[in-house]
Structures are given as C-alpha cells and as structure tokens.
Request: fold
Amino acid sequence: MITWSLLIASTRIYLGVHYPGDILGGIILGSLIGWGMYRLLLFLEAFMRPRKPEFIIPMENKRVYNIILAAFVVIGFSMLVVNFFLKHHMFA
Reply:
C-alpha cells in the first residue's frame, strides 16, 4: 500500500499535476489521520472490551469495610434526623 501511494505521488510530480509540497503535505496529513484513526480504534477497543471488576474486596478485609459502611449509614441517618428536627423547629 505504501509502495502504491509513493508510485502515485511520484507520477503526480512527474506529470506536473501537483507540486512536491502538495505531495509532502498530503503524505503528512494522511499519515497523521491514519495514526489518529489507529489510536481511536485502540481506545474504542479497550473501552468496549468487557473488564473484570477493578475493586474486589479481599475476604480478610470485608469485616473492616462492613464496619466503615455501617458507620457511614449511621452518620447519614443521624444527619437526616437532625435535619428533620431543625426544619420543624423541634429543638427550640
């Protein structure tokens, strides 16, 4: 494919249809577009590929995570109760 494109480019210059700068610009632009499409394809393949879960809790640490989760639930519920009492002026 590269050989074919170089052959066409050289005939364009030989026949006087394009200046060498036009050919060089086309080669650079085509290479950049080709490289960009290749990188986009790699990104989309990586993005669309099914992955394993990235955050897996080891069995020995589940108790710690459960305690932390319970603490957040208790704090969140307490905040809701305090907010309710403040809105209805029950602390006055």
